[in-house]
Amino acid sequence: MQLCMQGDLGQVITSRVAASSPFSEIEVFCVLAQMALAVEFIHSKGVLHRDIKPQNVLVLDGVRIVLGDLGVARKLDAGAMAQTRKGTLGFLCPEILSDQPYGVKADIWGVGCTIHALASGKTTSPFESNSRNALASIQKILNEPPAPIPTTTYSADLQRIVNSLLSKDPVNRPDARQVIMEPAVKLQVNSFFRPLVPLFTGEAKVSLDAQFVRLGI
Predict the structure, then answer these.
(1) Which long-range CB contacts under 8 A does 36-39 form with residues at least 24 apart?
(2) pLDDT of 112-161, one tens digit each?
(3) What is the Cα–Cα distance from 36 to 185, expressed in whole angstroms?
(4) Phi, psi for 21 (deg, rounded to 5)
(5) Per-residue pLDDT tens for 44-79?
(6) Is residue 148 part of a domain?
(7) 0.90 cut: is pTM over it?
(8) pLDDT recorded at residue 1
(9) Deepest in the core among 3, 86, 114, 151, taking most CB within 10 A?
(10) Helix axes 25-44, 156-165, angle to 10 degrees
């Protein structure tokens, strides 16, 4: 078991905002790379997380993170879809709110919401209504684009990736492997995360080695 010294990502976002210290673009891509690897791994095992949000991303130190709280996760057979509405309202994807069957792309939406929060310095959903009215938030998720991330701090490439993660139609969202293969994300996988692999032992290291082979990176 790993000790998450800094709590969850929501707490870290709050601390960074209070210190007027926004996350750099490299830090955002670093977190995205780790989240994409974690999501790709559970999806390869047929597991949906179903509640990805900043409060369920645990921070070991710096920007080393762990995807936590699989309390509402579900194991699916190959090709199967989930139907029950699970997760946190502001972070639910359009297909869940429309009572449609959903699959792995629902988790990608949660990743998009989390990365948007990281870049925007907020711990809430990018679709949360100013009135904090649940129905208004649902309508924003279904019908409105997310607010743009700060263009003075982040590149058009990061905005493009966030927009793709938050595509209303799951067909247009990338899967976790496609996220990992984005050049800016893959760079962080190889330069930040891969050097940490020797620190792992036993089954964890075997799983990571197998994942890199599966991804061809």
Answers:
(1) 36/111, 36/176, 36/179, 36/180, 36/185, 37/176, 37/180, 37/189, 37/193, 37/211, 38/66, 38/67, 39/67, 39/104, 39/107, 39/108, 39/111, 39/176
(2) 999 999 999 988 888 887 766 788 888 999 999 998 999 889 999 999 99
(3) 9
(4) -130, 80
(5) 999 999 999 999 999 988 888 999 888 888 998 887
(6) yes
(7) yes
(8) 47
(9) 114
(10) 30
Whether 94 is in a domain gets the answer: yes
Give me the phi and psi of 173, to 5 degrees please: -85, 140
Residue 136 located in a structural domain: yes
Distance between CA atoms of residues 126 and 120, nearest Å = 9
Listing DSSP states for 143-168 in one string gives H-PPPPPPTTTS-HHHHHHHHHHT-S
Name the domain count of the chain: 1
Within-domain flag for 212: no
Residue 144: CATH number of its domain: 1.10.510.10
Catalytic residue (one of 8, 51, 107, 175): 51
Look at the block and give the residue holding tokens 């990018």: 126
182 in Cβ contact with 161 (< 8 Å): yes
- Which structural domain, as residue segments, surrounds residue 177? 9-206
Q: Are strands 64-67 and 57-61 parallel, antiparallel or unpaired?
A: antiparallel
Query: Does the active-site annotation cover 51?
Result: yes
The 8-class DSSP code of residue 131 comes to T
Q: Which amino acid is at 153?
A: T
Could you tell me the two tokens for 3? 């000790």
